[in-house]
Amino acid sequence: MNKAFQLKEVQVVRAHVLKLVFGDGVEHLADFGPYFRDWSTPQEKRFSKAELFHKFKLVGHHALEWGDAALVFSAERLRKWESRGVVPAKEKAVA
Question: Are 6 and 62 in contact (CB under 8 A)?
């Protein structure tokens, strides 16, 4: 797998914002807020609550998963900003 599409680290920045670190060292701050507001299904909306959103799993460096695969975002789609509603966050990365 291309290192650019591997998630090496994921950190919570705030409510719906995650810092994504890819295998080639590139970092993205991804805001999932618009996804939950505009694109999520009723079943997925439960993960918009911060306490559930922060309980994601990194699956084999290739995906983020919530609740036994109830909600999954692939590393490749996140890297390319191709996941509907997941947008670059406006704040700066937290070290």
Answer: yes
Residue 23 is predicted with a pLDDT of 96
Token couple for 90: 């406006």
What is the reported pLDDT for 92? 62
Contact at 8 Å (CB) between 40 and 94? no
DSSP3 helix / strand / coil % (the chain, rounded to 5): 25, 35, 40
Q: List, for the chain, all residue ranges whose pLDDT scores fall below the cut of 70.
A: 1, 92-95
How are beta strands 63-66 and 57-59 bridged, if at all? antiparallel
d(CA 51, CA 4): 29
Q: What is the dihedral angle through the alpha carbons of 21, 23, 70, 39, rounded to the nearest 10 degrees?
A: 60
Report phi then psi at 30, rounded to 5.
-110, 125
